[in-house]
Amino acid sequence: MAEKKNHCSRQKWLTGGVPQFSRSQMYRRTAMYKRKRVVAKKEVKRPAAMLEKQINGEKNGGKRQVRVNRLPRYYPTEDLPRKFRSRKQAFFQHKHKIRATITPGTVLILVAGRYKGKRVVFLKQLASGLLLVTGPMQLNGCPLRRINQKYVIATKTKLDINSVKIPERLNDKYFKRQKLRKPKHQEGEIFESEEQKYSVSDERKEDQRDVDGQLMNIIKDVENMKAYISMPFYLSNKQYPHKMIF
């Protein structure tokens, strides 16, 4: 008797793990069309749309079929898009876990936004999960601002900011964007109405001076720290960030 060959795949592989036969060719080679697949259909029980109801009365009494959910009486004049319930949570409802490498006093590198490439000092995490950072503004021009931890690189450089007192009013509401008033042509003449422009409040200027003044006293005591923070981060040719130790 001839020896039985061990079962092996009918697919042949080329160099680099590339298959020789396509999916449709393998369907024919393995004779999948001869195999009968029996799929058990699941019975889906839908709730009944009509309900039998007993109605009392001498003339109109008896049993009738009544809808479980009544149809709307009035229809909107415009076809507006329906709002469906979303299972996704809003950003403020997420559980915000901060990276282990980011602690108060850590020097971070911003990689996105208006101040990308700046080295900043991390102060604290706000309730929304965003990071509160500052330049200080005297060194690199970066003010007190919020940023997502996805857009920062944490370095091993750290300052001891335990003595720095951060005002309690520095929260998410403090950094909320102001709604500026746009002029309407109905109000007086066109040339008289001026567009409202954003200006930094005295309160924010005071908080900036207060926090930066405390940080500058700490930075001056550390050798070369002032030059390190004021110098922007950039990459030259053949420098890869994933191979660097910050």
Report on this structure.
With 246 residues, this protein is α+β, with helices and mostly antiparallel strands. It is built from four helices and seven strands. The strands form two sheets. The chain has a five-stranded antiparallel beta sheet with strand order 6-5-4-3-7.
Write the layout of secondary structure elements.
Blueprint lengths: L22 H7 L20 E6 L6 E6 L38 E5 L8 E7 L5 E4 L2 H4 L4 E3 L4 E7 L43 H20 L3 H6 L16
Antiparallel strand pairs: 1-2, 3-4, 3-7, 4-5, 5-6
Summary of the model, kept short:
With 246 residues, the chain is of the alpha+beta class. It is built from 4 helices and 7 strands, in the order αβββββαββαα.
